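2024-03-11 09:14:02 DEBUG pipeline.ingest accepted 1 chain
2024-03-11 09:14:02 DEBUG pipeline.ingest length=311
2024-03-11 09:14:03 DEBUG pipeline.predict start
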Amino acid sequence: MKRFIKSVFLFVLLFVLLYPLMVILWGLTGSRLLYSNLSYGIHINGHMYTRLKEVKNVENIDVLIIGSSHAFREIDTRIFQRHGIRAFNLGSSSQTPLQTKILMERYLDRLQPKLVIYDVYPYFFTTDGVEPALNIIGCDRNDTCSVEMARAIHNLKVYHTLFYGFFRDLFHLNANYTEPAVIGDDTYISGGFVERKMGHYHPEPLPEKEYDYREEQFAVFDGILSMFKERNMEYVLIDAPTTHTLYSSYTNRQPFEEIMKSRGAYFDFNQLLNLNDSVHFFDADHLNRDGVEIYDAKLIEIIKEHSLLEK
């Protein structure tokens, strides 16, 4: 019996010592064969590394923009600048409330915005937040907020990536990395916006479907709004325009819209603008340059009409 207990103890000790080492070696090899267990990447998508590097030197802005790619691809801070509005876009790819929360905990008090524009695309209240969590872990320095996010998601891939992220942070392995301003068809613009090379969408029929909302995402969302209220910050909730084809394919938007309207000023730009799928979008989800100009002009018009920067 003593021999058995000793063997178990030695096995556990060996496992505790070797497993973290295995995770680090997985990360260092960067093998795609291990992607299902660990995925660490500085420039996964959307220039998040550059955006988070820049935001650390920004403070006391007029407008903070948060949300998914609908935020950083469609709200151009240069257009706001033309109207004398200093804005920063802290959107990220597939950003769910879980990632919005961690970004607000890290940067909201530094930025001190007069107004927060929160893009609340319904789809990202239906996902588990794994992929955007990996993006945040790889592009920012990790802390207790990262651990809290990982615990909320409770996914092995996220845990592995976070452990490896702490290892890279400890030894400053990303210190000399500079992300290119131009990656493929995307160009990073100072202020957090990503400009896409001009393109046009070719509409095709989409099957009807329903959003499968997650209650836990709404709970985190309410916590984020409480952060704004505690700081007496104005906020506005927006749903950016998508193609008519995509928008009309979802049959259960109404419950989401009712929730948003109950949480504050909410504007669905699919109802406010009449854009053309073939003219104003580069894919089913995202506006091209022409669409961005129209959308942002309307958004600024609403901000001024409702005196959101003057309250």
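2024-03-11 09:14:41 DEBUG pipeline.report Confidence is low (pLDDT under 50) at residues 6-16.
2024-03-11 09:14:41 DEBUG pipeline.predict end
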